[in-house]
Amino acid sequence: MSQLKEIREAILSGDLDAVSSIELPESYRGVTVHADEVEMFEGVPSRDKDPRESLHVDEVPVPELGPGEALIAVMASAINYNTVWTSIFEPLPTFKFLRRYGKLSPLTKRHDLPYHVVGSDAAGVVLRTGPGVHSWKPGDEVVAHCLNVELEGPDGHNDTMLDSEQRIWGFETNFGGLAEIALVKANQLMPKAAHLTWEEAACPGLVNSTAYRQLVSRNGADMKQGDVVLIWGASGGLGSYATQYALNGGAIPVCMVSSPEKAEICRKLGAELVIDRNAEGYRFWQDENTQDPKEWQRFGAKIRELTGGEDPDIVFEHPGRETFGASVYAARRGGTIVTCASTSGYLHSYDNRYLWMNLKRIIGSHFANYRESWEANRLIAKGLIHPTLSKTYSLEETGQAALDVHGNTHQGKVGVLCLAPEEGLGVRNELLRAKHLERINAFRGA
Questions:
Q1: What is the distance in angstroms between the CA of the first residue and the CA of the last residue of the chain?
Q2: Do the beta carbons of residue 200 and residue 440 sit within 8 Å?
């Protein structure tokens, strides 16, 4: 622990060159789930499973550093829904992912452990790099995207998301970002935005890149100026970035939220068309097995009322089961439903007549490839897209942070301090920060 203290002090003092000369510790603290607890929620409804019971802060050994890899000192991380899934062991325990990855090679065997260090976001400083790493060195301030690929087969070389060994770091691999030290492939690293604090810089990674691919990329909806874009959960971790991309790209977002407070957040971002689904009282399901097309029709009419008679060109879908039937109905003739995540359930049901007879498309979208992640991070660094951090917890409070996201009681992103002792540290460009401070703080305290 004395080495970790030295590393932290060097980073906080700005003496980044000293990091390479400080001996690595033998262990570090990380947020884990345990393989012997995967049955702990047996028989408990998903909504009642409590991440505070399953997420632990453990002292774990620093993993061996392999070729093409890097160890980073994590100053801050953030909560994504995949950490919620991991914590409630749904749709299956992540130890199955780790066992499968461990069979790939002697080096990946490191990941197959009885504990799983979780987390798919990180902002920090490079501590060490393995053989074959040329673009990064100890002392570099970085953020990490969560795409882990091997690229030994042909499929991933056109789009890295199609690699046969594609995984999400910290979810399908071990040694994730909710920890004091993390192990990444060096090609996950990107420059940290100099005008952001550690906790702000940690938040965009996964959701920003995911929203970029879903909406902007040719691999997603290929959004253009003037498109009407229906955005579910528009003030949440993923939707808050989708709203920004729609506004920046000249599209017309229709923001779906669940409270007046969340509606106000969207308006602060610049959105004008906002629907509070709770105020409207939409009930897309009559019971567990039966959807209500009349509610789809009422929903579609509300959208047309706001847009001057236009249906959405694009539906930005991520709730999944609860909303998917309404999304397919609401999209315009020839429109696109682009989907990921399925946080309310991954078995989707919809009336195919509205899809096939109206020539609509469903596009599956998962995270982002290397290039898309880099482009999304570049927009953060230039102050064109902003973090949506609303609240920050300590590493010891990660269970509560995950519970916030599980219960959808949060707005934007929820951050977690790892080695950073407090909020507000790590800013290197005060002028750029001052220019965008109002937008950077738009979600604070929400």
A1: 35
A2: yes
For residue 93, the one-letter residue type is P
CA distance 67 to 201: 27
- Per-residue model confidence (pLDDT) at position 1: 57
Distance, in Å, from the CA atom of 377 to the CA atom of 140, rounded to the nearest integer, reads 16
Extract the residue ranges of the chain whose pLDDT is less than 50: none
pLDDT of residue 99: 98
Q: How far apart are CA 33 and CA 198, in angstroms?
A: 25
Q: Which two tokens stand for residue 324?
A: 């998917």
| DSSP per position, 271-335 | --EEEEHHHHT---EEETTEE-HHHHHHHHHHHHHHHTSPPPSEEEE-S-TTTHHHHHHHSPTT-
5: which residues sit within 8 A by CB, 6+ positions away? none
Name the residue with tokens 């990941």: 111
What token pair was written down for 209?
């890149």
333 contacts: CB under 8 Å, gap ≥ 6: 311, 358, 359, 360
User: Quick check: 71 and 182 in contact, CB under 8 A?
Assistant: yes
C-beta of residue 210 within 8 angstroms of C-beta of residue 368: yes
| Residue whose structure tokens are 């002028």 | 431
Question: What is the C-alpha separation between 246 and 239, in angstroms, rounded?
Answer: 10
Region at 185 (left for phi over 0; alpha for psi -120 to 50; beta for the rest): beta
Query: What does the pLDDT read at residue 388?
Result: 96
SS3 state at 212? helix
Q: How far apart are CA 37 and CA 251, in angstroms?
A: 46
Write the burial class of residue 149 (CB in 10 Å: 0-12 exposed, 13-18 middle, 19+ buried).
buried
**Distance separating alpha carbons of residues 213 and 372, to the nearest angstrom:** 6
The encoded tokens of residue 189 equal 């690293």
CA 329, 248, 323: angle at the middle one, nearest 5? 20
The CA distance from 420 to 12, in Å, is 8
Residue entry with tokens 């689904």: 277
Contact 243, 439 (CB under 8 A): no
Q: Which amino acid is it at 165?
A: E
pLDDT at 316: 98
Coil, helix or strand at residue 269: helix
The token pair that represents 18 in the structure block: 């000293």
Strand-pairing partners, residue 417, are 76, 394
